[in-house]
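Researcher: Structure for this, please.
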Amino acid sequence: ARMAASDTFAYKRDAKLQQRLAAEMSALLKQPHNSICADCGNEKTVRFCSVKLGVFLCNRCYGLHRNLGAHITRGKCIGLDAWSPEEVDFMRANGNVRVNSYYEASIPPGLQRPTASSTDNYVSGWIRDKY
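Model: Predicted structure, token format:
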């Protein structure tokens, strides 16, 4: 059965395409700068990303990003969610280094970047202010 040309979600049902896109997302996540959370530097639970901002995130920061709203950031789980070719292209073109150099360029001197051991409140404020 052929799918209608107007089927905007056909890519989600294309198993070969999804397998290729998922493999590419896993490869992007394994790059050294993407395997560390873009917001708090956590190295342990980085398996999420924001397909609107182009960054890779840990479990905690992914949850905090969800509080910002879908108009600012939209999170996905690597290894679980379906991907559009455009999302993967965007993630490939951006990544943590490029996005952080843009969003953190105007951080006032002396403002401490959060770490994996920072409080949720501190990281949440950082994320809100950063994006």
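Researcher: Any notable elements?
Model: The chain has six helices and three strands. The first helix runs from residue 10 to 13.
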